[in-house]
C-alpha cells in the first residue's frame, strides 16, 4: 500500500517524481543506511561505503547506456547551468572557429548566452521565428567541419520538443544537454563526445549533475581552470575533489538500480515512456483541438506534453479540478503558460491513464 | 525512543551528524511534506512553498546572527571550494594590490592555491614551519591598508585550530571561510564583508553552501562572470537562478528552526559547545599525554578535537573498541592521521560525555 498516493500523480516539470520503491529506500536511509548503520546525511564522503556508491552508480550508467570505455562519468554540482559554462570553458576558450549551437527553445537560448562569454559561437538554426513550436529538419541544418563542437538540447522541457535522431557529423564532436530525457530511452551515447544531464527529471533529486565525457575531450581541453571547473581534476578525484552531494548521488544510485532491476534497462524504459506519451498524444489528437498541442506533432516530446485549452476560464477550471483529484505539477512553465504534463520515468502507465481518463471526462463536461 | 541511537554517536568530521528531531522531520518529508502533500524530492523549486522555505531560512539566519540589513544571503552549490574561486573572481580580478591570506592549515592552503589563479595574493602568515599546530598571535600579524580584502579560515577542521577573535582592521574587508564553525556560536558577522560556509558540518547535508555578502561587495565586484558564478545574478534570483538543491536547503531550514526554537539561539549553542569541548579537553589535559593534542592548547577548536595516542597499536585498539561501542567517525583526516572527535552542534552533551567516559576507561586499560 502506498504511503502517499499523491506522489504517483505528480506531473511536475522538475524536480520530478521518483519511483515509490526508491522513495521508500531513501526514507529508510535518512535514519539508517542498512550497510552502514548511520543516517545517509552523516556519512563521510571519504568512507569506503560512499566510494562504492559512486563506483556502482558509474557502473550502472555504463551498463544502462552501453558506454564505450573511453568515457569518464562525473557527478558534479551546479546543475546543467554550470555545464553551460564549463563546456565552452573547456572546449572553446582560445579557439578560432565557432562552436555551433542550436537554438530550439527556452533552455538552449540560455546555453547560447553563456557559451558566448567563452569563445566564438554560431547559432546554426533558431526556432524563434516559429515561436519554438518545432525542431529543424535534416535539410535545414548545415554544420561546418571546422567547428570545435556542436551543441544541442535533446529535449526542450518547457516547450515539449524532442529530437528523435542524433544531429551532426561524426568528425565534429557532439555535445548534448540531455537533462530532461537522460536514461529515459537509449541515446546512442557512443556518437557523442560529452553528454550532461542534471538529475532532477528522470534520475534523482536536484543537486547533482551527471557528465559523460570522452577522454579525448579532457586531454585536449583548457588546462588552467579552477579546480572545481576542471574535468581532469574531477576525474582524478572520482567526483570527490571536494565534498560531493552525497545524498543526491545515493538517490541516483537507487534510481539506476531500479532502472536495471525493476524496469529492465533503458530500452524497456523507452517503450514504457512511448506508451505513456502516446496515451496523452491520442487524447490531444482526438480532442478536436480542445487540447491544443504546443509542439508540432512530429517533434513532440515523450517527456513533456505541453498544451493549451480553449479559454483562460477553462484552463483555470482544469487546474482546479486536477488539483481536487490529487494531480499536481500540471502548470505550464512560466515562460509559455498553459498546461504541461511531464511524464518522466517515475510516472507509471497507470498514473498517465488516470490523467488521460480525467482529460477525456473534463473535455466532455467543458466542451462548448 | 531513538530510531537509530548510533546517529547520536557519530563524531564524523563531515558530513556530520544532524539533530535527531531534524532527521525525523526529514524522514517524513521524503514521502510527504505536510504543507504540500508531496515528497520533498518532487516539489518544484518555483513553487510558493519552496520560495517560503528560502525566505524563512534567510530570516532565521538573519535572526540567529543579528545580521545587518546590507547583507544578502545566498544558498549556492559547489561547496566552499567554489567560494575559494568565486571570492577572488569577484573581489580580486584586475586588482593591483594583493589580497592577504592566512595559511593556518589544510583548508587555508587550498584556498590560497585557488586565489592565486585570479589575482595577486600575499600570504601574511603561515603555520607550515610549526606543522600547523598553532595559530598566529596578534603581534605576528601585520595587514596592509591597501589590500582588497583579507581572508582566513575561522576553524581548521583537520588540525582542530580555531580563532577566538576577529582578525584584521575595519577599513579592509574581511572574508572568512566559516565552514566548520558557522552557527556554532556568535561570530560578529557585522565585522565581515563576506562569510561562506558549506552546510555539512553544523547546519545541513552536503550539497549547499551559505554565503553572506554585503551589498557593497556585490556593487564593486567583477561584472562579467558566468551567471552561476555571479553573486549579483544569484541575489536577483533569490538563490533560484537555476534549480537549487531543494532538499539540502530544506534541511538547513529545519536545522535553523531547531537552533532558534529548541536550542534558543547561537549564544546558547556556543555555551553548549564550550561545555562539550571542555569535557574532552579536560580528558586530554589530565591524561599525562596519553591523549596528545594536535593543536596548541590556546588555539584548540571547540568543533574538532584532534589528538594522537602513544603507539599505532593503541590507536588501532582505540578505533576497534570505539566502533564496538557504536561510536563512529573518529578517524583523523587522512592528511594528519590520529583521532579526531568532531563535536558539531548536533552532538549532545550526553554523547560527548559517553565518549569522555569511554576515553577515561580506555586509558585505564591501555596505559603502560
Mean pLDDT of chain A: 97
Biggest sheet statistics of chain A: 7 strands, mixed
Report the end-to-end length of chain A measured between terminal Cα atoms.
40 Å
Net shape of chain A: globular
Oligomeric state of the chains present here: homodimer
Topology:
Two copies of one chain form a homodimer.
Chain A: H1 20-31, H2 48-65, E1 71-76, H3 79-91, E2 99-103, H4 106-115, E3 121-126, E4 150-153, E5 155-156, E6 161-162, E7 174-177, E8 194-198, E9 209-214, H5 215-220, H6 231-236, H7 246-263, H8 266-285, E10 292-293, E11 304-308, H9 312-324, E12 339-342, H10 349-366
Parallel strand pairs in A: 2-3, 2-4, 4-7, 7-8
Antiparallel strand pairs in A: 1-9, 5-6, 8-9, 10-11, 11-12
Helix pairs in contact in A: 1-7, 2-7, 3-4, 8-10
Report on this model:
The structure is a homodimer. With about 375 residues, chain A is α/β, with parallel strands linked by helices. Chain A folds into 2 domains: about 5-20 and about 265-365, Aspartate Aminotransferase, domain 1 (Alpha-Beta Complex); about 20-260, Type I PLP-dependent aspartate aminotransferase-like (Major domain) (Aspartate Aminotransferase, domain 2). Chain A is built from 10 helices and 12 strands. Chain A has helices spanning about 20-30, 50-65, 80-90, 105-115, 215-220, 230-235, 245-265, 265-285, 310-325, 350-365, and strands at about 70-75, 100-105, 120-125, 150-155, 155, 160, 175, 195-200, 210-215, 290-295, 305-310, 340. A 7-stranded mixed beta sheet of chain A has the order 1-9-8-7-4-2-3, with helices on both faces. In chain A, helix 2 (about 50-65) crosses helix 7 (about 245-265) and helix 3 crosses helix 4. Chain A is globular. Chain A starts with 19 loop residues before the first helix and ends with a helix. The interface between A and B is large, with 63 and 63 residues.
Amino acid at each position: 500500500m502506498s504511503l502517499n498516493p499523491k506522489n504517483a500523480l505528480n506531473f511536475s516539470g522538475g524536480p520530478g517524481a521518483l519511483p515509490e520503491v526508491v522513495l521508500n529506500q531513501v526514507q529508510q536511509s535518512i535514519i539508517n543506511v542498512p550497510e552502514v548503520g548511520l543516517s545517509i546525511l552523516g556519512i563521510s564522503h571519504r568512507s569506503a561505503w560512499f566510494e562504492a556508491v559512486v563506483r556502482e552508480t558509474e557502473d550502472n550508467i555504463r551498463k544502462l547506456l552501453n558506454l564505450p570505455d573511453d568515457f569518464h562519468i562525473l557527478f558534479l554540482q551546479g546543475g546543467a547551468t554550470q555545464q553551460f559554462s564549463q563546456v565552452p570553458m573547456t572546449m572553446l576558450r582560445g579557439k578560432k572557429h565557432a562552436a555551433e549551437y542550436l537554438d530550439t527553445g527556452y533552455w538552449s537560448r540560455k546555453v547560447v548566452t553563456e557559451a558566448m562569454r567563452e569563445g566564438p559561437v554560431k547559432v546554426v538554426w533558431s526556432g524563434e521565428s516559429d515561436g519554438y513550436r518545432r525542431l529543424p529538419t535534416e535539410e535545414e541544418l548545415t554544420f561546418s567541419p571546422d567547428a570545435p563542437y556542436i551543441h544541442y538540447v535533446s529535449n526542450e522541457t518547457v516547450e515539449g520538443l524532442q529530437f528523435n535522431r542524433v544531429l551532426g557529423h561524426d568528425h565534429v564532436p557532439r555535445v548534448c544537454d540531455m537533462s530532461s530525457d537522460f536514461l529515459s530511452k537509449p541515446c546512442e551515447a557512443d556518437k557523442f563526445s560529452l553528454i550532461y544531464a542534471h538529475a532532477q527529471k528522470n534520475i534523482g533529486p536536484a543537486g547533482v549533475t551527471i557528465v559523460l565525457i570522452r577522454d579525448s575531450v579532457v586531454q585536449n581541453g583548457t588546462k588552467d581552470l579552477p579546480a572545481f571547473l576542471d574535468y581532469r581534476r574531477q576525474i582524478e578525484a572520482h567526483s570527490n575533489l571536494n565534498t560531493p552531494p552525497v545524498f543526491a548521488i545515493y538517490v541516483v544510485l537507487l534510481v539506476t538500480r531500479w532502472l536495471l532491476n525493476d524496469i529492465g534497462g533503458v530500452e524497456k524504459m523507452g517503450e514504457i515512456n512511448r506508451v505513456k506519451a502516446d496515451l496523452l498524444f491520442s487524447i490531444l489528437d482526438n480532442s478536436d483541438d480542445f487540447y491544443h498541442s504546443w509542439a508540432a506533432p512530429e517533434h513532440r516530446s515523450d517527456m513533456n506534453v505541453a498544451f493549451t485549452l480553449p479559454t483562460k476560464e477553462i484552463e483555470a477550471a482544469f487546474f482546479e479540478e486536477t488539483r481536487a483529484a490529487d494531480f499536481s505539477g500540471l502548470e505550464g512553465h512560466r515562460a509559455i503558460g498553459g498546461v504541461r504534463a511531464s511524464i518522466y520515468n517515475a510516472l507509471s502507465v497507470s498514473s498517465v491513464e488516470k490523467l488521460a481518463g480525467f482529460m477525456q471526462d473534463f473535455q466532455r463536461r467543458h466542451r462548448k
